[in-house]
TrEMBL record:
Protein name: D-ribose ABC transporter substrate-binding protein
Homology family: Belongs to the bacterial solute-binding protein 2 family.
Source taxon at top rank: Bacteria
Molecular-function GO terms, alphabetical: carbohydrate binding
Lineage: Bacteria, Pseudomonadati, Bacteroidota, Cytophagia, Cytophagales
SUPFAM superfamilies per record: Periplasmic binding protein-like I
Entry keywords, A to Z: Signal
Periplasmic binding protein domain span: 32-291
GO-annotated cellular components: cell envelope
Length: 319
């Protein structure tokens, strides 16, 4: 009789302990991971911090992971997010093709992935992709590029350089294609060099320094992002050509917006990392709460900002 009573009490204690553990776990806030390609670029810092802040405001614990433009490191972050019980992943991919396998791992584990700014080349991998309209944005830059440089009105060809971003990122080629869809129609515009600088400021400076040695008479430089535009401008300053060569960027980063105000950079395409990040966080919240019907891609408009309309944009606050 005593042994039966002991077994009953032991079994009851086990049930009670399990009940307490489940209750404690269920009361813990859900977690959202923010995995970004790099935090070595202020623009992506804004994207990551905005996404994390929005998710936190919606009631989630958040953690930012820096992939350092390395798909293998990004894979480690996904493994971490999966085993650590994150409920959603807000992703800025390192590579349009290379990141597919990581997004699919999360999907197979029942974790939705919402891409911000950069896309993965699979309609099945991500729940939704919130992307800047890079092509249209660079069509506008291409038009302004031609318009501003044609005022030189000389018989000699207008020579320019294009500095590309990461070759594995679709944004690189969408921007380049949008730009060339306009500029290539003008036969007096000649691209004398096209080279990648991986969206990196220092690499862009080094790339343009090298190009200027072979082509010292270039008239303009089109850069696939603003970090590279600032690097290109530094190279031109060092070569004593900053006043003679126009620099065009893409992103709307604070330093380039200020450089446009100062008459240094000609123009940029203003993206909204805040819009993309907040939308991704809101969609993750809706998914966690039961929604499943999301558009596969949502384009976010890009605005052309130049030295004429920069006055319409407020001076960026220090972050």
């Amino acid at each position: 009789m005593n042994s039966q009573r002991f077994i009953f009490l032991w079994f009851f204690a086990i049930l009670l302990a399990g009940s307490c553990t489940n209750k404690s776990t269920s009361n813990q806030p859900k977690k959202v991971a923010v995995i970004v390609s790099t935090l070595n670029n202020p623009w992506f810092v804004v994207l990551a911090e905005t996404a994390a802040a929005q998710a936190k405001e919606l009631g989630y614990e958040t953690k930012i992971f820096d992939s350092q433009n390395n798909t293998a490191l990004e894979s480690d972050h996904f493994e971490n997010a999966i085993v650590s019980g994150f409920s959603a992943i807000l992703l800025n991919p390192t590579d349009s093709d290379g990141s597919i396998v990581n997004a699919m791992k999360a999907k197979d584990a029942g974790i939705p992935v919402f891409c911000m700014d950069r896309e993965v080349n699979s309609p099945q991998a991500a729940t939704c992709q919130i992307l800047s309209d890079n092509y249209s944005g660079c069509v506008a830059i291409g038009k302004y590029f031609v318009q501003s440089l044609r005022t030189k009105a000389t018989d000699a060809p207008i020579k320019y350089v294009e500095i590309l971003g990461l070759v594995g990122d679709n944004n690189t080629w969408n921007r380049s294609k949008g730009f060339h869809s306009v500029v290539d129609h003008y036969t007096n515009f000649k691209m004398v060099a096209q080279q990648s600088a991986d969206f990196d400021r220092n690499k862009a400076m080094e790339v343009l320094e090298s190009i200027l040695q072979a082509h010292p008479d270039v008239n303009a430089v089109f850069c696939g992002n603003d970090a590279m535009a600032m690097g290109a401008y530094q190279a031109l300053v060092a070569a004593g050509k900053a006043k003679d060569v126009g620099v065009f960027g893409f992103d709307g980063a604070d330093d380039v917006m200020n450089s446009i105000r100062d008459g240094k950079i000609k123009a940029t395409g203003l993206q909204s990392p805040q819009t993309m990040a907040k939308t991704a966080a809101q969609f993750a919240d809706e998914y966690i709460k039961g929604k499943r019907d999301f558009a596969k891609k949502i384009p976010v408009a890009v605005e052309l900002v130049d030295q004429e309309n920069i006055k319409d944009y407020s001076t960026p606050k220090k972050r």
